[in-house]
Write a structure and sequence with these properties.
Helix content is 72%, strand content 0%. It is mainly alpha-helical. Helix 2 (22-35) runs antiparallel to helix 3 (42-55), helix 7 (112-124) packs antiparallel against helix 8 (128-151) and helix 7 (112-124) runs parallel beside helix 9 (172-196). The protein is globular, with a radius of gyration of 19 Å. The model is unreliable at 152-170 (pLDDT under 50).
Length: 214
């Protein structure tokens, strides 16, 4: 067995950006998935292998590894179903892809990165309406989490209602991670709105404020 850390996986991906050899990286991740011990989950490594196959243009292999990550059931970044949907779209299996996205929607994920990933997939598939909806939902999620953090004493303010659908375990780390996704979601949403010919709204103003304060 091989002890692998997230830093090790990040280093391999960084090297691949330099070399452009995504097939070699995909094979290395696949090998590590069979050898990994501690540090990272096997599912996480399988998901990274799938991403590298997709970068290499082999969407069949990508889909296979995304399915393996889902079947493994271990902890992963994001939601493997979003990545699998991307590969299925590329394979011309749009009905299957959209069924997966419907499953994700029904689960109402808390992670804003899931909304970002789905919005990016739909935007790339020429669906600005879907991209706009998912990006907006992701922004809503972040702002709700921010409000919840205020209510739990991180920023002061009233106690949250138990009926609020945001996790009761929100803390400052959750908020910080969510805020990291805010600009990307707002940018995606704005691009979709431009494509749809919609006027600027309060969320576009929020993006302007973020960029001004960057």
């Amino acid at each position: 067995m091989t002890h692998v850390t997230e830093d090790d996986l990040d280093d391999l991906e960084f090297d691949t950006l330099r070399t452009g050899d995504h097939i070699a990286a995909a094979r290395r991740f696949a090998q590590l998935a069979d050898e990994v011990s501690g540090g990272v989950s096997r599912a996480n490594v399988l998901l990274r292998a799938g991403e590298q196959w997709q970068h290499a243009g082999d969407h069949d292999q990508a889909a296979r590894f995304y399915r393996r990550a889902m079947e493994d059931g271990g902890e992963t970044y994001g939601d493997p179903r979003a990545y699998l949907a991307d590969a299925l779209f590329e394979l011309g299996r749009a009905d299957e892809a959209r069924a997966l996205l419907d499953q994700i929607r029904a689960d109402a994920p808390d992670d804003p990165e899931v909304y970002r990933a789905v919005a990016e997939v739909l935007y790339a598939q020429g669906d600005p309406v879907g991209a706009h909806e998912w990006a907006t939902s992701g922004v809503d999620r972040i702002l709700a989490l921010r409000d919840r953090a205020v209510g739990t004493g991180i920023g002061g303010g009233p106690e949250p209602s138990p009926a609020d659908d945001v996790s009761l375990t929100s803390d400052s780390d959750d908020v910080a991670l969510a805020e990291d996704s805010l600009e990307a979601l707002l940018r995606l949403r704005y691009r979709a709105r431009v494509d749809l010919g919609r006027p600027e709204d309060s969320y576009d103003a929020l993006l302007d404020d973020l960029l001004k304060n960057a």
